[in-house]
Design goal:
Blueprint (H helix, E strand, L loop, with lengths): L1 E10 L7 E11 L3 E6 L6 H8 L7 E6 L2 E2 L5 H11 E4 L11 H6 L13 H10 L15 H13 L5 E5 L7 H16 L3 E5 L3 H6 L2 E6 L2 E2 L1
Parallel strand pairs: 3-8, 3-9, 6-7, 7-8
Antiparallel strand pairs: 1-2, 1-4, 4-5, 9-10
Bound molecules: adenosine-5'-triphosphate and magnesium ion.
Adenosine-5'-triphosphate binds next to β2 and α1.
Length: about 220
């Protein structure tokens, strides 16, 4: 279980371009559930998810994992926590160019003290589950937007994280790819993973066990 308590983020504090992107947001994502964040563009979804996943330091508030306050730890410890426990699917996908789909899926392993080649079969399995077997050795620029998005989903899962944070994972996909990804999330849910998703997509929001609606940085 991961819980955000009164998270606030002020960008560029004290400067002319100061933005209070998130204000006192509370979110609770339970194990074995899909928790959805919805709201209009600019309402603070990415900012909030980045704080929950320890990619961004909150201005105020805390994040509890199984009731333990992880915001109190050092940056180094937070990086280790993130690496071991959190899989991210970024809104802008962020695959590495010049690497093929398989290599992209295995990149998170480079931060771990393990031989990535020992994870080749799990990576191939993930690509298969996401319908990408015939694109395994294609470089990023040879993949469609929807295929890239599915590679990004596979990459988030290679380290077998307990917590999955997916920011608009259906942005670039067609209906068939969307179904592959939503089926995949349903499987993860059955495995007891904690899944937090931001979405505009009705088919994904429909899967959610709990939905939080944001408006102007606050929970509506
Ligand atoms: N690094 C930054 N510096 C300054 N302001 C930022 C920064 N990142 C985001 N913002 C501002 O914070 C607000 C929330 O942005 P955020 O990306 O969290 O929204 P979002 O809900 O994810 O939007 P979208 O649906 O378009 O992805 C926006 O007004 C944005 O301009
Ligand atoms: Mg966003």
């Amino acid at each position: 279980m991961i819980e955000a308590i009164d998270l606030t983020k002020i960008y560029n504090r004290g400067k002319k371009n100061q933005v209070e992107a998130v204000t006192d947001a509370c979110v609770k994502a339970e194990d074995g559930e899909i928790t959805a964040l919805v709201g209009p563009s600019g309402c603070g979804k990415t900012t909030l998810m980045s704080m929950i996943g320890q990619l961004l330091t909150p201005t105020k508030g805390k994040v509890l994992v199984n009731n333990e306050d992880i915001t109190a730890y050092s940056d180094g410890w937070k990086a280790i926590f993130r690496r071991k426990n959190v899989g991210f699917v970024f809104q802008h996908i962020n695959l590495l160019p010049n690497l093929n789909a398989l290599e992209n899926v295995m990149t998170p392993l480079l931060c771990h003290d393990i031989d990535p080649t020992s994870y080749k079969q799990p990576a191939l399995n993930l690509l298969k589950q996401l319908g990408l077997t015939d694109r395994t050795f294609f470089e990023v620029e040879q993949l469609s937007g929807g295929q890239q998005q599915r590679v990004a989903v596979a990459r988030a899962l290679i380290t077998e994280p307990k917590i999955i944070i997916a920011d608009e994972p259906l942005t670039f996909v067609d209906e068939a790819s969307a179904k592959t990804i939503t089926d995949f999330f349903e499987e993860l849910k059955k495995e007891g993973k904690t899944i937090l998703i931001s979405t505009h997509a009705a088919n994904l929001a429909k899967l959610a066990d709990k939905t939080y609606e944001m408006r102007n940085g606050r929970m509506a």
